[in-house]
Amino acid sequence: MRPTPIVVEKEALAEAGADWVARQLVEAVAGGQRVSLALSGGSTPGPVYRELAKRDVPWALVDFYFVDERFVPPDHPESNYLLAEEALFKPLGVPPHQIFRMQGERADREQAARDYEQLLPPELDVVVLGMGEDGHTASLFPGHEALQEKERRVLTVVGPKPPPWRMTLTLPVLQSAHQVLGLVSGAGKRDMVRRMLAGEDLPAAKVEHAQWMMDRAAADQDK
Ligand SMILES: O=C(O)[C@H](O)[C@@H](O)[C@H](O)[C@H](O)COP(=O)(O)O
Protein backbone atom coordinates (compact mmCIF):
# COMPACT_ATOMS: atom_id res chain seq x y z
CA MET A 1 0.00 0.00 0.00
CA ARG A 2 1.48 3.35 -0.95
CA PRO A 3 1.78 6.13 1.63
CA THR A 4 -0.42 9.24 1.34
CA PRO A 5 1.77 12.32 1.91
CA ILE A 6 0.27 15.02 4.13
CA VAL A 7 2.45 18.13 3.99
CA VAL A 8 2.15 20.73 6.78
CA GLU A 9 4.26 23.64 8.01
CA LYS A 10 6.93 22.45 10.50
CA GLU A 11 5.20 24.41 13.28
CA ALA A 12 1.94 22.54 12.58
CA LEU A 13 3.46 19.03 12.65
CA ALA A 14 2.77 18.37 16.35
CA GLU A 15 -0.88 19.43 16.05
CA ALA A 16 -1.47 17.57 12.78
CA GLY A 17 0.27 14.43 14.03
CA ALA A 18 -1.65 14.45 17.32
CA ASP A 19 -4.96 15.00 15.50
CA TRP A 20 -4.26 12.06 13.17
CA VAL A 21 -3.29 9.62 15.94
CA ALA A 22 -6.19 10.68 18.18
CA ARG A 23 -8.64 10.20 15.30
CA GLN A 24 -7.35 6.68 14.58
CA LEU A 25 -7.52 5.71 18.26
CA VAL A 26 -11.07 7.04 18.74
CA GLU A 27 -12.24 5.20 15.61
CA ALA A 28 -10.50 1.98 16.66
CA VAL A 29 -12.08 1.88 20.14
CA ALA A 30 -15.53 2.72 18.78
CA GLY A 31 -16.81 -0.75 19.59
CA GLY A 32 -15.33 -0.64 23.10
CA GLN A 33 -12.45 -2.98 22.23
CA ARG A 34 -8.89 -2.25 23.24
CA VAL A 35 -6.51 -0.59 20.76
CA SER A 36 -2.73 -0.90 20.41
CA LEU A 37 -0.51 2.12 19.74
CA ALA A 38 3.20 1.60 18.94
CA LEU A 39 5.56 4.54 19.44
CA SER A 40 8.89 5.47 17.87
CA GLY A 41 11.66 7.54 19.42
CA GLY A 42 14.01 10.17 18.04
CA SER A 43 13.56 13.95 18.17
CA THR A 44 10.53 14.39 15.90
CA PRO A 45 7.73 12.62 17.80
CA GLY A 46 8.21 14.30 21.24
CA PRO A 47 6.11 17.41 20.44
CA VAL A 48 3.48 15.18 18.78
CA TYR A 49 3.20 13.02 21.90
CA ARG A 50 2.96 16.08 24.17
CA GLU A 51 0.13 17.43 21.97
CA LEU A 52 -1.51 13.98 21.81
CA ALA A 53 -1.68 13.90 25.62
CA LYS A 54 -4.13 16.82 25.40
CA ARG A 55 -6.55 15.00 23.11
CA ASP A 56 -9.87 13.50 24.24
CA VAL A 57 -9.17 9.79 23.72
CA PRO A 58 -10.49 6.86 25.84
CA TRP A 59 -6.94 6.24 27.09
CA ALA A 60 -8.05 3.45 29.42
CA LEU A 61 -8.62 1.36 26.25
CA VAL A 62 -5.17 2.08 24.74
CA ASP A 63 -2.25 -0.33 25.13
CA PHE A 64 1.13 1.28 24.42
CA TYR A 65 3.91 -0.59 22.60
CA PHE A 66 7.25 0.44 21.12
CA VAL A 67 8.48 0.33 17.53
CA ASP A 68 12.08 0.15 18.65
CA GLU A 69 14.29 0.84 21.64
CA ARG A 70 17.93 1.43 22.23
CA PHE A 71 19.68 -1.03 24.59
CA VAL A 72 20.02 1.51 27.37
CA PRO A 73 18.24 1.71 30.76
CA PRO A 74 14.71 3.21 30.72
CA ASP A 75 15.96 6.34 32.52
CA HIS A 76 18.79 6.92 30.00
CA PRO A 77 18.49 10.14 27.94
CA GLU A 78 18.65 8.03 24.73
CA SER A 79 15.77 5.76 25.83
CA ASN A 80 12.67 5.85 23.62
CA TYR A 81 10.68 4.77 26.68
CA LEU A 82 11.86 7.85 28.61
CA LEU A 83 10.71 10.09 25.75
CA ALA A 84 7.23 8.53 25.79
CA GLU A 85 7.05 8.48 29.59
CA GLU A 86 7.77 12.19 29.88
CA ALA A 87 5.67 13.33 26.91
CA LEU A 88 2.71 10.98 27.15
CA PHE A 89 2.54 8.41 29.98
CA LYS A 90 3.14 10.81 32.88
CA PRO A 91 0.83 13.59 31.64
CA LEU A 92 -1.93 11.00 31.06
CA GLY A 93 -1.20 8.98 34.20
CA VAL A 94 -1.06 5.78 32.14
CA PRO A 95 -0.98 2.77 34.51
CA PRO A 96 1.93 0.34 34.06
CA HIS A 97 -0.30 -2.52 32.89
CA GLN A 98 -1.12 -0.53 29.74
CA ILE A 99 2.56 -0.02 28.82
CA PHE A 100 4.51 -2.79 27.06
CA ARG A 101 8.09 -1.56 27.33
CA MET A 102 10.99 -2.98 25.34
CA GLN A 103 13.48 -3.85 28.08
CA GLY A 104 16.59 -2.08 26.87
CA GLU A 105 18.32 -2.58 30.21
CA ARG A 106 18.62 -6.35 29.79
CA ALA A 107 22.04 -7.87 29.19
CA ASP A 108 20.60 -10.78 27.20
CA ARG A 109 19.48 -8.74 24.21
CA GLU A 110 18.32 -11.70 22.15
CA GLN A 111 16.13 -13.02 24.97
CA ALA A 112 14.72 -9.53 25.54
CA ALA A 113 13.70 -9.42 21.86
CA ARG A 114 12.14 -12.89 22.00
CA ASP A 115 10.24 -12.00 25.17
CA TYR A 116 8.89 -8.87 23.50
CA GLU A 117 7.63 -10.92 20.56
CA GLN A 118 5.38 -12.76 23.04
CA LEU A 119 3.81 -9.47 24.19
CA LEU A 120 2.88 -8.18 20.74
CA PRO A 121 -0.73 -8.47 19.52
CA PRO A 122 -1.24 -10.37 16.21
CA GLU A 123 -1.58 -7.02 14.41
CA LEU A 124 -0.92 -3.53 15.75
CA ASP A 125 -3.73 -0.99 15.34
CA VAL A 126 -1.83 2.31 15.14
CA VAL A 127 1.92 2.79 14.58
CA VAL A 128 3.93 6.02 14.70
CA LEU A 129 7.16 5.90 12.68
CA GLY A 130 9.94 8.40 12.14
CA MET A 131 12.54 8.44 9.39
CA GLY A 132 16.24 9.20 9.48
CA GLU A 133 18.13 11.18 6.84
CA ASP A 134 19.50 7.85 5.58
CA GLY A 135 15.93 6.63 5.10
CA HIS A 136 15.79 4.27 8.08
CA THR A 137 12.64 3.80 10.09
CA ALA A 138 12.25 2.01 13.40
CA SER A 139 15.76 0.59 13.74
CA LEU A 140 15.64 -0.83 10.22
CA PHE A 141 18.47 0.72 8.22
CA PRO A 142 18.79 0.67 4.41
CA GLY A 143 21.12 -2.15 3.40
CA HIS A 144 20.75 -3.93 6.76
CA GLU A 145 19.94 -7.65 6.73
CA ALA A 146 17.15 -7.06 9.27
CA LEU A 147 15.11 -5.64 6.38
CA GLN A 148 14.99 -9.13 4.84
CA GLU A 149 13.52 -10.76 7.98
CA LYS A 150 10.23 -12.49 7.19
CA GLU A 151 9.64 -14.67 10.29
CA ARG A 152 10.85 -12.90 13.44
CA ARG A 153 8.69 -10.03 14.68
CA VAL A 154 11.34 -8.43 16.90
CA LEU A 155 15.10 -8.39 16.25
CA THR A 156 18.21 -7.01 17.90
CA VAL A 157 20.34 -4.97 15.49
CA VAL A 158 23.50 -2.86 15.48
CA GLY A 159 22.70 0.36 13.68
CA PRO A 160 24.81 3.19 12.25
CA LYS A 161 22.86 5.68 14.39
CA PRO A 162 24.16 5.55 17.96
CA PRO A 163 23.39 4.09 20.43
CA PRO A 164 24.44 1.04 18.39
CA TRP A 165 22.54 -1.88 19.94
CA ARG A 166 18.79 -1.71 19.41
CA MET A 167 15.66 -3.80 19.50
CA THR A 168 13.24 -3.26 16.63
CA LEU A 169 9.94 -4.44 15.20
CA THR A 170 10.49 -6.02 11.78
CA LEU A 171 8.87 -5.18 8.44
CA PRO A 172 6.22 -7.93 8.67
CA VAL A 173 4.91 -6.34 11.88
CA LEU A 174 4.97 -2.79 10.49
CA GLN A 175 3.37 -3.90 7.22
CA SER A 176 0.52 -5.71 9.01
CA ALA A 177 -0.36 -2.66 11.15
CA HIS A 178 -3.82 -1.20 10.50
CA GLN A 179 -2.84 2.50 10.50
CA VAL A 180 0.73 3.84 10.14
CA LEU A 181 1.82 7.46 10.51
CA GLY A 182 5.28 8.44 9.27
CA LEU A 183 6.44 11.65 10.97
CA VAL A 184 9.17 13.32 8.90
CA SER A 185 10.53 16.81 9.44
CA GLY A 186 13.57 18.68 8.15
CA ALA A 187 14.95 19.66 4.74
CA GLY A 188 17.65 17.01 5.11
CA LYS A 189 15.05 14.27 4.65
CA ARG A 190 13.30 15.78 1.63
CA ASP A 191 15.22 13.73 -0.94
CA MET A 192 14.77 10.50 1.00
CA VAL A 193 11.01 11.10 1.19
CA ARG A 194 10.93 11.73 -2.56
CA ARG A 195 12.87 8.49 -3.20
CA MET A 196 10.63 6.53 -0.83
CA LEU A 197 7.42 7.85 -2.43
CA ALA A 198 8.89 7.02 -5.86
CA GLY A 199 9.49 3.46 -4.65
CA GLU A 200 13.25 3.75 -5.21
CA ASP A 201 15.69 1.41 -3.46
CA LEU A 202 17.54 3.43 -0.86
CA PRO A 203 21.36 3.35 -0.71
CA ALA A 204 22.84 1.32 2.15
CA ALA A 205 23.05 3.36 5.37
CA LYS A 206 26.74 4.23 5.89
CA VAL A 207 27.90 0.63 6.25
CA GLU A 208 31.44 1.69 7.31
CA HIS A 209 29.92 3.69 10.14
CA ALA A 210 27.86 0.65 11.07
CA GLN A 211 31.03 -1.46 10.96
CA TRP A 212 32.68 0.97 13.39
CA MET A 213 29.64 0.74 15.63
CA MET A 214 29.72 -3.07 15.45
CA ASP A 215 33.41 -3.12 16.40
CA ARG A 216 32.73 -0.81 19.34
CA ALA A 217 29.68 -2.80 20.40
CA ALA A 218 31.72 -6.01 20.21
CA ALA A 219 34.47 -4.39 22.32
CA ASP A 220 31.86 -3.25 24.83
CA GLN A 221 30.46 -6.77 24.92
CA ASP A 222 33.93 -8.21 25.66
CA LYS A 223 34.41 -5.94 28.70
O1 LIG B 1 14.95 5.01 17.98
C1 LIG B 1 14.99 5.79 17.02
O2 LIG B 1 15.99 6.46 16.70
C2 LIG B 1 13.76 6.01 16.20
O3 LIG B 1 12.76 5.12 16.39
C3 LIG B 1 14.15 6.20 14.78
O4 LIG B 1 13.60 5.34 13.85
C4 LIG B 1 13.78 7.64 14.45
O5 LIG B 1 12.39 7.68 14.15
C5 LIG B 1 14.59 8.16 13.30
O6 LIG B 1 15.96 7.96 13.62
C6 LIG B 1 14.32 9.64 13.08
O7 LIG B 1 14.80 10.33 14.19
P1 LIG B 1 14.57 11.91 14.33
O8 LIG B 1 13.10 12.09 14.59
O9 LIG B 1 15.42 12.29 15.51
O10 LIG B 1 15.02 12.53 13.03
What does this structure look like?
Pathway: Carbohydrate degradation; pentose phosphate pathway; D-ribulose 5-phosphate from D-glucose 6-phosphate (oxidative stage): step 2/3. GO terms for molecular function: 6-phosphogluconolactonase activity. Belongs to the glucosamine/galactosamine-6-phosphate isomerase family. 6-phosphogluconolactonase subfamily. This is 6-phosphogluconolactonase. The protein is of the alpha/beta class. Helix content is 35%, strand content 15%. The protein has helices at 13-28, 45-52, 80-92, 109-119, 171-175, 190-197, 207-222; strands at 35-39, 62-66, 68-70, 126-130, 154-158, 165-169, 179-183. Strands 2-1-4-7 form a 4-stranded parallel sheet. A 3-stranded antiparallel sheet has the order 3-6-5. β5 and β6 form a beta hairpin. The relative contact order is 0.15. The model has no long low-confidence stretch (mean pLDDT 92). It binds 6-phosphogluconic acid (6PG).
